[in-house]
Amino acid sequence: MSIAKMSLAVLAAVAACGSLLSSVSAAPATASYHIYDGVRPEQTSCNIPFSDISRISAYANLGGDLKCGDCVRITNTATKASVVVQIVDRGGAIFDMSKQAFDSIDTDKQGYARGRLDIDYVKVACGGGGGGGSAPAPQPKPQPQPTPRPRPVPTRRQPALRSSGAQLEEPVSGV
Questions:
Q1: In the chain, at which end, N or C, are there fewer CB atoms within 10 A of the end residue's CB?
Q2: How does the average pLDDT of the chain come out, rounded?
Q3: Degrees (nearest 5) of the Cα angle 45, 51, 57?
Q4: Which residues touch 124 (CB under 8 Å, ≥6 apart)?
Q5: Where along the chain do its domains lie?
Q6: 23-124 in CATH: which number?
Q7: pLDDT tens digits, residue range 82-134?
Q8: DSSP 44
Q9: Average pLDDT rounded to a whole number, residues 21-43
């Protein structure tokens, strides 16, 4: 193979890699917050277990580029603070983050004042992702608990019967 053809092949490979990299680059969007306190997983669109509401979000275009259970690194474009959240619901804004996740990247409090943040987001693997936040940890399966043994109920001695002068017969033993 000639050097020119080899150089052309290498250049084509580099260009292909560049187009792959651009497909995972951060996308601009907006984020608001949602109060998830007291919300159970079965009350969300995804119905997937979550125990740490500080790292969850809803996504408006669920089923498009992101699906239930996907993890996303969301970065505040103004402050560069970021957090990794798991998609557990469908929301009205592009991202409806838990209040705790929203507050963790709203470091200058301008998002709270405006009611939304300008953000970039990129899908990351759950359980990692870096960037200032940690992805939601996999949820442990509940272990069966042993059935508690019933405790014996203490009995109280009944007070002796008092008669009004009548004699009670003693039980005859050894008959």
A1: C
A2: 72
A3: 45
A4: 71, 72, 73, 84, 131, 135
A5: 23-124
A6: 2.40.40.10
A7: 999 999 998 777 899 999 999 999 999 998 899 899 999 999 998 744 433 44
A8: S
A9: 76
